[in-house]
Amino acid sequence: MACISSTRGFLSRIKLLLIIISFGSLVIWMIMGNTHNLVLEVNHQSVIHNFWKMTKLDEERMTSMITPNITPSPNDLPLCPLLTPYLRGSTKLIFDTRLTLEQTQKKNPKVQKGMFAPQECHSPQRVAILIPFRNREKHLLYLLEHLHPFLQRQLRDYGIYVINQAGIDVFNRAKLLNVGFLEAMKERKWDCFIFHDVDLVPENDYNLYLCDQEPKHFVVGRNSTGYRLRYRKYFGGVTAMSREQFLKVNGFSNRYWGWGGEDDDLWSRAQLQKMKMVRPAPEVARYTMTFHTRDKGNEVNPNRVKLLKDVYKSWKNDGLNSCSYNVISHDHRPLYINITVDIGGPHRKLEIAKLSDPNLIGGV
Asked: 157 and 123 in contact (C-beta within 8 Å)?
């Protein structure tokens, strides 16, 4: 009897131990599950807040750092926050081949004549987006579809300029951007200029389209490179410079006919002025490149390496102050300002355009 009683006691203790172990496992599982969710939430918040190293208490400090020249506020509107409540973070981009310009226009009723300004607050900078262009209508449509809501969620005061190279001469991206700067400044005293390739679409609206105290490079990663930076000093694709910075380096060189070299040239000019490059975090500065083949008339520039070696000698006389072009048309369309321009060719020179605003050459 004593043996049976002892066995029953042992079994009872085993059952109790199993119950305790099962309950403990359940608790651990619940904790781990919540911890996993917490980690995901923390990771999400790190992209939004920790990367920018900003809290509500130091937002004013960040504003002064990112926006060296805050424009005067009309009608005493409050300054728009850097991180607006409309931001969504990373967005999966969809490109519908059936998309039309009219559909995109209907989705952006507040954009008037290529420009937008928030009504609820005052944007710290007036931002001009300059897009060099020729025969890339579908890519432009995709970019406009995503870029307009992207900028509106950031509460930007902005205008989009499309600088269209007329004729069949070799494409010159850099010269078109010089033209865009000069023509845009005739319309409005923009604070910040973003030089934007037509085939690059931003994926994350925490990638703030504002100028900094130093030249800013946005394309840290893109889908075509596995979201890796192409090379350490890469300064192409989408870049930003304040009006003063761009004037100080005399803009882009006008001598890069064909693909390649002009962005490295611009960065060399910036370095000659002791400027430094800043970039957003890789988690934020991600772009989708819409597929295309090499454009006819935009073949690789065989002279780019030679031109890059001469930047320190040529930058003062080759740039905004030597940009020759003839404007064929300058019209405000619903979603962008179109500037169709004849910029000549590598063997066809034009007269240098007269700069109507003396401030444009004051810093060169």
From this structure: yes
What pLDDT, on the 0 to 100 scale, is given for residue 23?
59
90, 95, 101, 107: CA torsion to nearest 10: -40
Residue 138 CB-half CA count within 13 A: 9
3-class SS at 248?
helix
Collapse the DSSP code of 216 into the 3-class scheme (helix H, G, I; strand E, B; otherwise coil) and give the result: strand
- The residue behind tokens 């989408």 is 238
Structure tokens at 248: 């100080």
Asked if 84 and 243 count as a contact pair (C-beta separation under 8 A), the reply is: no
Which residues in the chain come in under a pLDDT of 50? 1-5, 27, 31, 34-62, 64-65, 67, 354, 356-364
Quote the tokens at residue 21.
């172990």
d(CA 74, CA 123): 10
**What are the residue numbers of the active site?**
197, 199, 259, 262-263, 289, 292, 294
Q: Which helix (H) or strand (E) holds 143?
A: helix 137-153
pTM of the model: 0.80
Q: What is the pLDDT of residue 3?
A: 45
The model's pLDDT over 294-315, given as tens digits with 9 standing for 90+, comes to: 566 667 777 788 888 889 899 9
